[in-house]
Design goal:
Length: 195
């Protein structure tokens, strides 16, 4: 027997063994397909709310769809019903993805629930699409291609002519044309989605 033929058999056996193991794993679905994403793009069920000052555990929390502000207060134990000041957000107001709630202290033992929106960057980081009527000047500036001057123009247009109602209505703003709309489209909700 030739020594060179003996030395070539172990690498061949090793290669066949590795091939058989990979084939077995693929047949059982143990290895991910090559085109799988590195992370999930699915939108989580429920709504993400930023709880701010006055809440026992401030930060972003996820709640069930259809929950009201009163339900959030009850679940978090933030305020009792008799310690809430009138004039804040109504208890029966439904919470919406990207909403931010705070308790404004009016007296040491009482508070008023105030509502605002998470900053646009935070909403986008959480996968929450934007709506043009939920944007501040700072939110507009945080988007690509929108500078201070255009953000101010958007704010002035909204004050003069009212809410946009839908994304495409942004085209009425001087400085926003079809190309700018196309570039901004991925950041905003589809028309027909409610506020």
């Amino acid at each position: 027997m030739d020594i060179s033929s003996v030395r070539s058999q172990p690498p061949l056996l090793f290669g066949l063994t590795v091939f058989a193991a990979v084939a077995l794993l693929l047949s059982r679905g143990m290895l991910p397909p090559q085109d799988s994403p590195a992370f999930s793009l699915e939108t989580p069920a429920g709504v993400r709310i930023l709880l701010g000052n006055g809440f026992p555990n401030p930060g972003v929390h996820q709640f069930s769809d259809g929950l009201t502000v009163g339900g959030v207060i009850e679940l978090t134990g933030a305020l009792s019903a008799d310690s809430r000041e009138p004039g804040g957000v109504a208890d029966d107001a439904v919470v919406v993805d990207g909403m931010a709630l705070e308790i404004a202290d009016t007296t040491p033992a009482q508070g008023k629930i105030e509502q605002r929106w998470m900053p646009a960057r935070q909403r986008l980081a959480l996968g929450i699409l934007l709506h043009p009527d939920r944007m501040s000047r700072e939110d507009w500036v945080s988007l690509p291609g929108i500078g201070e001057k255009l953000a101010a123009q958007i704010e002035i247009d909204r004050q003069n002519y009212g809410d946009f109602g839908r994304f495409e209505a942004l085209e009425r703003v001087k400085g926003i044309g079809p190309a700018k709309l196309k570039a901004l489209r991925p950041f905003f909700v589809e028309d027909g989605n409610s506020l």
